[in-house]
Amino acid sequence: MSERVGTFDGVHRRNLSKLLGLVHLEGPLSRARLTAATGLNRSTVAALAGELVDLGLVEERAPDPTNRVGRPSPVIAPHPGVTAIAVNPEVDAVTIAAVGLDGRIPVRERIEVDHLVTPEETARLVAEELGRWRTGALRRARIVAVGLAVPGLVRASDGLVRFAPHLEWRDAPLRTLVEAATGLPTVVGNDASLGAMAEHLFGAGRGVDDIIYLNGGASGIGGGLIVHGLAVGGAGGYAGEFGQNRPGIASADDRRVPSGVLEDEVSRARLLEVAGLAAADEPTLAAALAASDSPDVTAELARQRRILSTALANAVNVLNPSLVVLGGFLATVAASDPDALAVAVAEQAMPAAAEDLDVRVAALGEDRLAIGAAELAFQALLEDPLQVA
Fold first, then answer.
1. pLDDT tens for residues 79-117?
2. Hey, which family's this protein in (predicted)?
């Protein structure tokens, strides 16, 4: 008897997870569409939707009045109050955002710093910002967890930051520190891997199963991999560190750092320098470069494109993706002449591997890391709504 009850309970939890996941990924859906998508019968979907409403995870809305065919079907949508806190510590700023289960970002704060933040300071900043939001923008929110997107090697098993070189963190127990400071469940992941997940689920890689994603930030270049629709983390969770590879540079005039790695040569700091900026967020840097008629800007963008194209061609030869997505300052480098970049990659890759390749910039823009960190934070809720609720 206990086995039958346990089996029923497991199926029930999976069905709740399935419905909540669908409205999270697709947005508001009618009960009729949920019935078709899940293969469950109408009464089961109605009961599951009602339970998710009672749990405060979704809300039921009136049918679309423009749908005049057949019996009107209520619409199920993620509850707008269900929220995750997303954090991205960098060398020049700590960005903190609230991300709803419905994908909205109601509030965001970029806290600029003139020093390298420590793990302890990061936890304190998150707690302080969250305290202000709880009495203001998030006073009615149900905050389920904190997700951190860190530019470094994060151990998958426990979220320990093994090494974040530009932040100078080693074996940092960031998850424990943030949980203690906020009182909230906390998860930690590599920033580029989380950006890859966000773009795969909601952005430029939506519906694509084989993706290479490269993220360019203040701390250098990281990457994420989606293979057959699944994120690839490697044995310890450290896969995708494209920025630490040594690029092939055909012209000695293009090299700036002897024996340098990719992120030494394709560099946000060098773009800031030619743009005449000491610091800037992503949109500001992109706008400054686009508006400039300086030959130094043109030359630096072209140099970085050439080196980036070789790195991408090598990755294409190894992994044979159908899509490459570039985020952060790499999107700016690519957007300066997307056709030239695509041609250069195709010329250096094996013809068969490159014949159906598409190269795109990240569709989520500066939201990609926040959405990726929030997705990690929502994971436990999405997998078992009853356990978290």
1. 999 999 999 999 999 999 999 999 999 999 999 999 999
2. Belongs to the ROK (NagC/XylR) family.
| Domains of the chain with bracketed CATH | 2-78 (1.10.10.10), 82-194+368-388 (3.30.420.40), 205-363 (3.30.420.40)
265: tokens are 């040569």
SS3 call for 97: strand
Sign for the CA dihedral angle at 176, 89, 194, 56 comes to: positive
- CA nearest 107: which of 115, 119, 116, 98? 98
Within 10 A of 165 (CB to CB), how many other CB atoms are there? 15
Could you count the other beta carbons within 10 Å of the beta carbon of residue 2? 6
Alpha helices in 27-59 (DSSP H): 31-38, 42-54
Nearest to 172 by CA among 181, 164, 183, 161: 161
120 three-state secondary structure: helix
Asked whether residue 68 carries a pLDDT value surpassing 90, the answer given is no
CA-based nearest residue to 243, from 264, 225, 257: 264
Instruction: Lowest mean pLDDT of 5-19, 35-49, 116-130, 290-304, name the range.
Output: 5-19
